[in-house]
Structure formats: C-alpha cells, structure tokens
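Reading a protein record of the kind used here takes only a little practice. These numbers are not coordinates but entries in a learned vocabulary of local backbone shapes. Here is one such record, which you should read through line by line.
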Amino acid sequence: MDEGTSNAVGAAVRDADAGHRRGRALLDSTSFRGSAAEPPRAKSPGRIPLHGTMQEVMARGPNFVYAAEFIRDRYGPSKWEEVLQALSAEAAEVWRGTLLVTGAYPFRAFKEMLAALADVVGALPEEETARMYEFIADRSLSTIHKLFFNLAEPSFAIKRYPQLWQRFFEAGSVEVPTAGRGSAVLVFRLPEIFLDWLPPACLGYSTKAVEMAGGKDLKQEEISREEKKGLWVISYKLSWKEK
C-alpha cells in the first residue's frame, strides 16, 4: 500500500466512533418499531413479517427486482423456478411475493437465493454475484445518473457510492476518502452478514460504473479488514485505466 493510500485509509478508519454511530443508527433502523414485546406489523407491500427477528438486515428493492430480472434474462424462467424451489419456505415467500424497487426485504433471503442459484446453474457463487451486480448497476442507475457518468471521469462515479449505497441497503455505510484519476479508496462499515457478499458485489458494480464513465480494466484490492464495535471496517483500493 502506498503512503497516500495508507494515510487516506487511516484517516477514514480513525473516524470509527462517528462511523459506528452512523452504522448503529442504520442497524437500528432495520428493527421493528417498539419494544421487543411488540408483535411485528402486518404484512405490507415490499416487507414481510420476520417471525420475531428484531435486527434483521434489510436490503432495498433494487437488489431483489433486478436480481430476479438478471436470472430470468440470463438463464430463462425455468431455471428461475428451479432456484425458487430450492429455497426455504420463508425465502421463497419473499421472492414469490410482489417485489418493489421501493420495498425492503431480508438480506438473508437474498443471500440464500445466491447460494441456490450457484447450485442450480453450476457456477461459483462469487463469479455469479459479480456478474449479477454488473447487471444491477446498469439497470438500477437512472438515465440522469448514466448521462452524468458518461460525461464524467470514473472517479466521479465512485464518489457517488455513499449516496448510492443508501438506495440498496438500510444497514452499513461506505466512504470514499480518496478518488482521482485511475484509482480510488473505499471504506465500508458493515454487519457480518455482508462479509462474503461484499468482494464480488463491489467488483461487479464498480466494473460497470467505471465502464459507464469511460474507464476499463478495473482491479480491486482489499487493503484492510478489522472488526470494530460490532461492525466490520473493510477497505478496498480500486484502480482502472482511463479512456
């Protein structure tokens, strides 16, 4: 790790107390309102009862809507049905329900789908996740975002990650302490459930975002990882070739 990258990561990680407060607030937002004795709210579009689970990590609708679209487009409706049949009853209830971009759903149901998909199509889970998030990046970004990305340098797209993260998850956060020509540093603060999902998802999404802004040959390197106050602080260095 070069000195500039090390300093940038160090500065971001030293902000752990503030980061922890933000992360904890986001984690708390995934709980049901009220005390532990209060029963879950009735089922509503975009959210299902979680059978008493009080701090379920929730993923927002774009993950689910565009993942299902990716599988149907790439493998066909019959394979998608095989994936659904391989899920637990609870996860299948989520995926067979009405999925809305504006909804929020249990992230564990998403991860269960990824494992089932890899088994059904005979692919490595990390490779399938990376491909899926390239597709999700393309489908989830608005026309205005794509226009800005096409007119800007890749670093502009990367700098938007903190705002974009909030469109995808109710828990966790990402910071971009440095982003310039050809490289950027990302610092994630996440609950443990994200650990195996993050590397391929970040690689796939970043590959598409950088390509939209005219870059190519994205590389992703993990430069630090530590658990701090109940959240995992994980730093990546992204590098790419400019147009």
Observations:
- The first strand starts at residue 58 and ends at 60.
- The chain is about 50% helix and 20% strand.
- Residues 3-34+54-241 form a domain with the H-NOX domain fold (CATH 3.90.1520.10).
- Residues 179 and 201 are 19 Å apart (CA to CA).
